Amino acid sequence: MRLEKYIATSGIASRRAVKKSIRAGAVTVNGEPVLVPGHPIDVETDSVEFEGKRVEPLTERIYLMLNKPAGYITTRSDQRERPTVMDLVADLSDTIYPVGRLDLETDGLLLFTNDGNFAYRLLHPSHEIEKTYIAWVQGVPHDDAIQRLRQGVTIPSGKTAPAKVKRLKISRDGKSTAFEVTIHEGKKRQVRMMFKTIKHPVIRLRRTRIGTLKLGNLPSGAYRILTSEEVSELLML
Ligand code: URA
After folding, report:
1. What is d(CA 124, CA 140) in angstroms, rounded to the nearest whole number?
2. Cα 34 to middle of ligand 1, angstroms
3. What global pTM score does this model have?
């Protein structure tokens, strides 16, 4: 495996930052400085140090966030060979899997890991971890309708818990409205179904936050490894 990928996968820094550090002489392999990011590493036997600290081997846990574009299915494999979110992290590892799901047309923050315990903690309904979405919906919903969403509405998979719903803006042509919606459940197509009940269907949906973790300006289709602080903050929720 390439040296910079080996180090980036361990979660120390982004691949770009790691490359820079390698060139600057911050990395040794078996005690010898290596300045070439593509230097081949034998993951079984080589000992890599980054700024004097041993880089833990790949069997360590991996946590990353992807900015999922619309049009990708959240699944590990699709029988009909449609694009899946795994295609977007394929260069990293095939032992990771998505934590929860975003539906085909939804974009934004999606976590991946190979740590079953982490996935369980994030997904278990009893932990009530907040997820925030930006929803563009058709038309301009009346305040009373928005109030109903805040209190909870009945959708095909049951009654939704109270949600935080904030109007952000109305489009210039007055034909659509953007809302910030925060929920802590994971009912099927929940946000889309909530707006459907008030007859203002969602046109575009993006997840921007899970608990303490924000999507930020990660480009669409790109991923980044979470820092150990980010992982521990999520686990403390
Ligand atoms: N709510 C939806 O409707 N879709 C998603 O992907 C996530 C939440």
Report:
1. 34
2. 46
3. 0.76
